[in-house]
Design a protein that fits this description.
284 residues, alpha+beta, Glutaredoxin, Glutathione S-transferase Yfyf (Class Pi), Chain A, domain 2, 49% helix, globular, binds glutathione
């Protein structure tokens, strides 16, 4: 039986290693098992955590405090998360999209679920990623604030950036319709969704809460619906998945952190994680 990934099984709990700067991996490594170096707020690491969860790949998670990188992390030649290590051989690999591809290559369960029905190829998933990256992801990040910045107060946003982003959402809508939806490559989730979603999730939240633009419909059917119907259906399909719900940061504390710091990547500069934001959400 495939062991369910701990990141997902341990709903709402911190991952297996402490986030302190001098922390060490605390979990015993099982020979042959893969170790996932992550930061739960990093969108690139989020791609890999979704792939591990959806692909049901047994793994050990090690959360790395990026604001105080531990020595054991840099000693592995690592500077960024995500990374995967196979302790049995000492092999360490990085780059989020490559890691998702590697999981599909090495774990038949991941290939079966992320390249569904044998009809979706890795090349198609990569092509969809390229189209989305050059389209709504790039213009969405620019609209949100440019680079990794984010507005501190809600507004309607700059007209030119908004127009470009809306045009790219039109294109995404057409792409989803052409694929038949609700997912990027058709009626089943694939590696394309796993690669693109972490950015879509952040852009959707920032646009809804800070810039008065809706990619998705509200859960409760309240508020104005998104004008991009296929995009809204994609967001709803993704949001209904356990992996997506389990790995997401709570919205209010995440928005508070974005607005306090003016940065989407505030966790590069201060100790924070999905788990600590969840705690803040409970006490706030
Ligand atoms: N191209 C890399 C980007 C990874 C990346 O930028 N990770 C950020 C966190 S979101 C990081 O590790 N930042 C630490 C630093 O810049 O020192 C990938 O796709 O894996």
């Amino acid at each position: 039986m495939v062991r369910r990934s701990r990141a997902v099984a341990a709903r709402g709990s911190p991952l297996t290693a402490a986030a302190a700067g001098d922390s060490r991996p605390t979990d015993a490594h099982h020979p042959g098992e893969v170790v996932f170096y992550t930061h739960t707020l990093c969108p690139y690491a989020h791609r890999v955590s979704l792939a591990l969860a959806e692909g049901r790949v047994p793994h050990t998670c090690v959360e790395v405090d990026l604001s105080r990188k531990p020595e054991w992390f840099t000693a592995k030649g690592l500077r960024l998360v995500p990374a995967l290590e196979w302790p049995a051989t000492g092999e360490v690999r990085k780059e989020s999209a490559d890691l998702v591809g590697l999981l599909c290559e090495r774990y038949p369960g991941a290939a079966e679920r992320l390249l569904p029905g044998g009809s979706v190829t890795w090349a198609e998933a990569e092509a969809a990623l390229r189209v989305c990256d050059a389209g709504f992801v790039s213009s969405g990040m620019a609209f949100l604030g440019g680079g990794w910045t984010v507005p501190r107060t809600p507004s309607r946003g700059k007209t030119v950036a908004r127009t470009r982003f809306e045009r790219d959402l039109d294109a995404l809508d057409r792409m989803l319709e052409a694929a038949g939806g609700p997912y990027l490559l058709g009626d089943a989730l694939s590696a394309a969704d796993v690669l693109v979603w972490p950015f879509a999730e952040r852009i959707e939240l920032g646009c809804r809460a800070l810039l008065d633009l809706r990619m998705a419909d509200d859960d409760d059917g309240e508020g104005s619906p998104s004008k991009w119907r296929a995009v809204a259906a994609w967001c709803a399909a993704m949001a209904s998945r356990d992996s997506v719900r389990d790995l997401a940061a709570p919205e209010r504390p995440l928005l508070d952190a974005w607005q306090r710091t003016g940065r989407l990547d505030f966790f590069d500069y201060e100790t924070a994680s999905v788990a600590t934001l969840r705690e803040e959400g409970k006490s706030g």
